[in-house]
Amino acid sequence: MLTRREFTTALIAAPYALRAQQGPLRARIKVDTERAIGDIDPLIYGNFIEHLGRCIDGGVFEEGSKLSDANGYRLDVLEAAKKLNVTILRWPGGNFVSNYHWKDGIGPRDRRPRRLEMAWGTVETNRFGTHEFLQYAETMGTEPYICVNLGTGTWTDAQQWVEYVSSSQDTAMTRLRKQNGRQEPWKVTYWGLGNEMDGPWQMGHRSADDYGKYALEAAKLMKWTDPKIKLIAAGSSHFGQGIDWIGWNRTVLEHLKRHIDYLAIHRYVGNPDNDYYDFLTSSMDLDERIRTTEGVINAAMSGEPRSRRIYIAWDEWNVWYRARGPQQRGRRILEERYNLEDALVVATFLNSFVNHAHIIKMANMAQLVNVIAPMFTNDTGMFLQTIYYPLALFANNTKGRALKLFVDSPTYESRRFGPAPYLDASAGYEDGMLVLNVVNRHRDQEVETEILTQDKQFAGPVDVSEVNGADIKDENDFGSTKVQTATRSARADNRTLRYKFPPHSYTMLKAKLT
Ligand code: AHR
Ligand code: AHR
Predict the structure, then answer these.
(1) Residues 198-239: pLDDT tens digits?
(2) Confidence at residue 511, expressed as pLDDT on a 0 to 100 scale
(3) CATH 2.60.40.1180 intervals, the chain
(4) Angle between helices 340-355 and 282-301 (to 10 degrees)
(5) CATH pick for 41-397 out of 3.30.1330.200, 3.40.50.720, 3.20.20.80, 3.40.30.10
């Protein structure tokens, strides 16, 4: 006997079976370099480290390890992170930040207080604090982004953190910084006004109205301390049934629209029902939330001067559903292992960010290492998870202007979003170089595609990079890489490139246009 769910899944699966018998699948993609969506902000290739599980402790930072330098930074992780071209790094949380008192994390490491950590149920040693983070960001060559505690923290805590880090005046805070070994101020432009304040799980959770009022006073003090900073408000992260996530954003914007530069939204997706085709439409959920949030921002900003812009910072996103739930207490938590289908979903998320380049001006994958992350360590080494590969390809190549593509692809009927195209694509164009990203969502069939340029011609060979594996459930592990990037070359003919996108693949095509 089939269970109800198996029966529904079988029904949904039927059209794919039919389609598979209908011969080759064909698609067309038209590229016009004059049709631009907006400039791709490099900050969409950001990441995030939190005092959570083994992300910082045992991932980024492992004092005494043979793999670490004198500061305690794990060098293997640092090297792999550099290759991901992480453009901005958010810290210290996440849920952790909502009871983090930054003054605990400065001064001689051995004298820092050990504190009970209530978000994730551990003890925080505070050995990795402001100096360790900012030096790490400098070493990595990435823009630092600090989120302040607007849960149990005060306005003064937030203001003094900006002063300690950025002020060049002679004050008690800057003397303290110098006494702790840093003479010159750092340059920290990006500051977050709390984390997921809409979530009942958050320490110091508030209503939208209470958060808006509280964050406004913090914002004023922080900007008066350093007028050059950019502020990110905590938008929606809680999307369950009956949750007024749009209302949260609307209220927060009403309070903060004259002070903030970004509204942050968060999204984690998963495949708990083992429904591949439904999971692969997750980016369509993202698209919908982007359009809605953009509308709410536009409504809030109508009547405000044109020079005042608020963008979306998608500052936590990823696949996360296996290592979730009440067991999320202690050290080895959120250690999600990723497979090929997760890597494809990650590629479609990145497509979505590029396809909304005019409004998404920052995004941070959560998180960098071990905790729902592209890298995974143990005491003696590390491996790259499947999701590392699409992220690295995007971050190192998809730049410049985002192009509005015409994509004519066969579709399937998806459970949540109706017709879903098998091909999901995005493109970046810079200095005559076209980068085309294409995910073929079809599990079993290739899609024969004609890529047609409208205003230019292909010049020279096309570099192909493909992330794929034998099976959608393939995972990587220590010493075993089943999913990774393969490269080859293809030929185009003047204005046409004919390419067969293999089943369950992400392909990046890179070509010079003249
Ligand atoms: O990234 C893991 C957690 O997810 C973060 O701490 C929190 O902000 C979100 O709920
Ligand atoms: O698991 C607790 C919370 O639930 C997470 O922090 C949040 O992202 C999720 O919705």
Answers:
(1) 999 999 999 999 999 999 999 999 999 999 999 999 999 999
(2) 98
(3) 20-37+403-513
(4) 30
(5) 3.20.20.80
CA distance 388 to 45: 12
pLDDT above 80 (res 20): no
Say if residue 16's pLDDT is above 90.
no
How far apart CA 201 and CA 205 sit, in angstroms, is 7
> Mean of the per-residue pLDDT values for the chain?
95
Query: Residue 237 Cα, ligand 2 centroid: separation in angstroms?
Result: 8
H or E element that contains 255:
helix 245-256
Token pair belonging to 182: 């840093």
Distances (CA, A) of 230 to 276, 295, 485, 489: 39, 22, 36, 42
Third-level CATH fold of 20-37+403-513: Immunoglobulin-like (2.60.40)
Q: Are the CB atoms for 350 and 490 separated by under 8 Å?
A: no
Angle at the Cα of 418 (from 365 to 422), degrees rounded to 5?
65
Q: In what order do the strands lie in the sheet with 496-501?
A: 406-408, 25-31, 447-453, 496-501
Question: Is 254 part of the annotated catalytic residue set?
Answer: no
Instruction: Label residue 4 by pLDDT band (50, 70, 90).
Output: very low
Long-range contacts of 104-111 (CB under 8 A, 24+ apart): 104/129, 105/129, 105/130, 105/132, 106/130, 106/131, 106/164, 106/176, 106/177, 106/180, 107/180
Q: Measure Cα distances from 145 to 120, 138, 211, 306, 464 in Å.
A: 22, 12, 20, 26, 34
Residue 448 is among the residues annotated as catalytic for this protein: no
Q: Fill in the amino acid letter for 154.
A: T
- Ligand 1 pocket (Cβ < 6 Å) reads 50, 52, 93-95, 195-196, 316, 366-367
Q: Identify the weakest region by mean pLDDT among 3-12, 334-343, 390-399.
A: 3-12
* Ligand 1 atom closest to Cα of residue 93: 6
State the Cα–Cα distance between residues 118 and 98, nearest whole angstrom. 10
Q: Is the pLDDT of residue 313 over 70?
A: yes
Pocket test for ligand 1, best of 96, 232, 316, 321 (most atoms within 8 A of CB): 316
* Type of residue numbered 440: N
Question: What angle in degrees, to the nearest 10, is found between the helix axes of 388-397 and 340-355?
Answer: 30
* Measured distance CA(266)–CA(243) in Å, rounded: 14
Measured between alpha carbons, how far is 326 from 120 in angstroms, rounded to an integer? 10
* Band of pLDDT at residue 326, cut at 50, 70 and 90: confident
pLDDT at 22: 65
Buried b (16+ CB within 10 A) or exposed e, 208-240: beebbebbbebbeebbebbeebbbbbbbbbbee
